[in-house]
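> @MW can you paste both from yesterday?
MW: sure, first one:
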Amino acid sequence: MAKLQRILNLLFIFTLFFFLVAAYVYQFMTGSPPCYLCILQRYGMIGVAAALLMNCRFGIKVQHYGLAIVSAMIGRFFSLRQITLHICPEFPAYDKTVLGIDLYMWAFLIFTCSILACAILAMLYGFTKDKNFPMIWGIPERCVFWAIVFITVCNLATTLLECGFSKC
């Protein structure tokens, strides 16, 4: 069961990394830098990934899943805020979609799935008999750690380039 939980945590983090990179590349290839709500949604995803990385580094704990759920709820709030802004007729529509769905709707779906996945992983941990299994900080964990660090630094750099040290 411990090996399964480790693999699921790594898979979850890699999936979040994939979505972060895909959104990052897509928005800049289409020439539309992210708005402040998009930036906040990305930091919510990074928060979920960081909480799951704590499981990989310090051992699986329900508190880490709780932190991931809180990060996902905060990111989900920013996604919902952007959805409600684009529903208003006075607010300009966002014309770029991926598979017919806007990026902020994708973020909302990702955060919703993250909350559900963290709840399932926390329940899976509850069924584990030996809760003191040693965690391995091997090559996959290090790769995913540096991948998340890389995307975080890229997001910080582009935020500073776009906004500077003032409000966006």
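MW: second:
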Amino acid sequence: MLGKLAAPVLLVPAQVAAWVLLLPVNGLPVARLDVVLLTATVLGALLSGCGTLVAAFTQREGPTQAVYTVLVLGLGLASLLAPQDPANLIARASVGTLSAASWVTVGAYAALAAVVLAGAVLVVRSRLRADQLRPGAG
């Protein structure tokens, strides 16, 4: 179960790194690749945890996709309330203009991702146990 949750989280920084390696080819250096990768990983973890929670509660493909889409749109809108939204944060890291608000925002996203991931693990474990205890299971 953790492998299925870890796979998309680990793919995010790999994809970001692949794209970032192409930027200098076009004359666009990235000043703080570490912060870009950290932010992308944290946001990937947050979205993966949200997707896992949605799937655990809806348990059907069609509704899961619809709920997840609405959730991602809501998170995108809510991120505009943060001191720096994700796109602004990654842009600032890329050009090397991070501020104290940048670090507070990364920390807030990381804390939220940790809570969501922990919740996802607990919910999925609980659901798996309940399925195993149900008569006629397995």
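> thanks! The first helix runs from residue 2 to 22.
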